[in-house]
Amino acid sequence: METKILLPEREMPTRWYNALPDLPTPLAPPLDPQTHKPLTPDQLEPIFPKAVIEQELSPKNWIDIPEPVLDIYRLYRPTPLIRAKRLEEALGVKCRIYYKNESVSPAGSHKPNTAIPQVYYNKIEGVKRIATETGAGQWGTALSFACGMFGLSCTVYMVKVSYNQKPYRRSLIQAYGGEVFASPSDKTRTGQAMLEKDPDCAGSLGLAISEAVEDAATHDDTKYSLGSVLNHVLLHQTICGLETEKQLAMIGEKPDYLVGCVGGGSNFAGLFLPFLPRRLAGEKVRFIAIEPKACPTLTRGDFRYDYGDVARLTPLIKMHTLGHSFMPAPIHAGGLRYHGDAPLLCNLVAEGLVEAEAYHQLECFDAAKLFLRTEGFLPAPETSHAIKGAIETAKRAKPGEVVVFLYSGHGLLDLASYDAYLGGKLTNFEYPEEHITEALKACPVIEE
Ligand SMILES: *Cc1c(COP(=O)(O)O)cnc(C)c1O
């Protein structure tokens, strides 16, 4: 039995799979934040390029990947699918565990899969600069890398707690040529207002989004780019699942469980969406989303319309949410601290087609340690959630079943978190129910 299942480069998928037309219940439309009327595509034009807006709403099942994008994908794609034999042995399970290793990209995570096409579409529409936010720094790194590839400038608003916790992520963004500001910053009105209220504000992803959107909306040559949540991001990430499908077919395997960690939902959706048609056709394959107990969006949030950011600048989207004013506990999986999730993923959770589980950060680090010592790779704290989920799934699985999880990124720039873990300094945070109830009161009430 092979350990490493490598897809030949000529077999790399040349189209992305768009799940929108296949959803049993259509997505609830995004709404204008002021009028609460469905948004028209032209309202998005100040912040996104046209090609991206078209993909956001596309009724087509397959979308061609442009050649200049494929050309950069080939630097690290196809990525390997690996049989985690030593992990199976250590657990004493009789199922087979595989992981799709997206940590081999230049930026060290799955995020370049969407950064590259997004920058490409901006470039062909004449955009000169892209503004964005980053939580743990992974998205900022990926976008800065992709902007460099196509010769665009890149401005990154980095959540202040990560900016201080992860100085090397910031260095890497800068090494690729991007500029980085700790958010809240004094560069935007939103940031200035927050600093006036609370000079020590540690920031949040929702707040950093507000700053980046404001930057893009107030500069003609600048657009905004989001690294997760939106339909077009999930679309670009389907390259992961499409490759996995081919790799499993090469060795005559079929997945029984697809597992991934969820921050905004893009890596997990990228893995399982290409398998959705099989599931809808009655095949037995389960999709399992893993999130932190400190940010339990899918497991404890409400499924309702909410803003994507603190300043209420983004459209209203129907999703599982903890409330847009959610201020997360400083857990180390910075990429998993967003108050909402991709509407496409939430739609499928609401349909019962996707299951969700939440774990504490300490048990996830335990899982990461076991993985490191059996499989050799050091996972990002976000990825440790997928590993924990895959381990629990494998323990429940029947002999001979196949568990596949997405290995979303390496942790080589997260060693400060491992230091805290190995030094016994990490604690768990359970998000209090009162906070959820309180934050949800600030959500708009929309009649549907
Ligand atoms: C950003 C990130 C995540 C979470 O984002 P999704 O959109 O849910 O995929 C998970 N793992 C890593 C390594 C990340 O960088």
UniProtKB/TrEMBL annotation:
GO terms for molecular function: L-serine hydro-lyase (adding indole, L-tryptophan-forming) activity; pyridoxal phosphate binding; tryptophan synthase activity. Its cofactor is pyridoxal 5'-phosphate. Keywords: Amino-acid biosynthesis, Aromatic amino acid biosynthesis, Lyase, Pyridoxal phosphate, Tryptophan biosynthesis. One of its GO terms (cellular component) is cytoplasm. It comes from Desulfolutivibrio sulfodismutans. PROSITE patterns: TRP_SYNTHASE_BETA. Pathway: Amino-acid biosynthesis; L-tryptophan biosynthesis; L-tryptophan from chorismate: step 5/5. This is Tryptophan synthase beta chain. SUPFAM superfamilies: Tryptophan synthase beta subunit-like PLP-dependent enzymes. The beta subunit is responsible for the synthesis of L-tryptophan from indole and L-serine. Tetramer of two alpha and two beta chains. It catalyses: (1S,2R)-1-C-(indol-3-yl)glycerol 3-phosphate + L-serine = D-glyceraldehyde 3-phosphate + L-tryptophan + H2O. Residues 74-409 form the Tryptophan synthase beta chain-like PALP domain. InterPro entries: Trp_synth_b-like, Trp_synth_b_CS, Trp_synth_beta, Trp_synth_beta/beta-like, TrpB-like_PALP, TrpB-like_PALP_sf. Coiled coil: none annotated. The modification N6-(pyridoxal phosphate)lysine is found at K111.
